[in-house]
Amino acid sequence: MRIKTGSLILCGTLFFLLFFGPILNKWAVILILLLGLGSKIIERKKTTRYLVHFLLCLLVPTLAIIAACFIGFFHSYDKTAMTPIILHIGIVAFLVVYATDSLKELMASHQTNSSEVLGALNTYIILGLIYGEIYAFIAYFQKGSFSIASAITQSTSSTNPIHDSWIYIYFSFITQTSLGFGDMTPTSHLAQVIVISQTIFGQFYIAIVLAYLLHNYITKDKKA
């Protein structure tokens, strides 16, 4: 069966970012990611719905950070980082909305074809990106939340996790796939809790989604 164009474009975009993300400007990465998501959203014919979600995902953190400024939370932080913080929180929230919808759509499908498999792969990669950005936020607000090998820190272009979150995206996929190289380890309680949740959810996702796709494939084969 022919693969849906939107799924193929999104998959190509995600793998492009995984390979070339470290050498691209963070804003370029966000733009390319949104373009890839946009192709799939347009294909789903839900442009208005997702546009509203995206605006809400930006509005809520904006109001929250404005409130945080009033109570003095940002006094110890660089206020010039507020704009990228708001944008990244909005992007992460939007990715959560998109991944949730994709997972619901996948589990509602009663067939297994190339598009379904590609959709499952796209969602898995997006989950890794979501957790990577969450780790970057934790590292920004809680200094020393991660113990990082010096060889990794020397290869980064910026010491600000908000501006350069690649090493945390790398750590996210290492965690999600349960490889655990040991070159990065969570040291704060919050970071450890998030790592535990990703490890559980990552393995749960693979087990459930693969079982569901295989079940649909076998059922369809028997009916044929």
The helix tally amounts to: 8
Major sheet: size, sense and barrel closure? Answer: 2 strands, antiparallel
The backbone outline, from C-alpha atoms, is globular
Class derived from helix and strand content: mainly alpha
Number of strands: 2
Distance between the termini: 15 Å
Structure, explained:
This protein is an all-alpha fold and 224 residues long. The radius of gyration is 19 Å and the shape is globular. It has helices at residues 5-20, 26-44, 47-70, 82-108, 114-141, 150-153, 166-176, 189-223, and strands spanning 146-148, 184-186. The protein has a two-stranded antiparallel sheet. The longest helix is centred in the C-terminal third of the chain and has 35 residues, at 189-223. It has one domain (5-223). Helix 1 runs antiparallel to helix 2 (26-44), helix 1 (5-20) runs parallel beside helix 5 (114-141) and helix 5 packs antiparallel against helix 8 (189-223).
List its traits.
single chain; mainly alpha
What is this structure, in a nutshell?
By secondary structure, this protein is an all-alpha fold. The protein is built from 8 helices and 2 strands.
Question: How are the SSEs placed, and which strands pair?
Answer:
Layout: H1 5-20, H2 26-44, H3 47-70, H4 82-108, H5 114-141, E1 146-148, H6 150-153, H7 166-176, E2 184-186, H8 189-223
Antiparallel strand pairs: 1-2
Helix pairs in contact: 1-2, 1-5, 3-4, 4-5, 5-7, 5-8
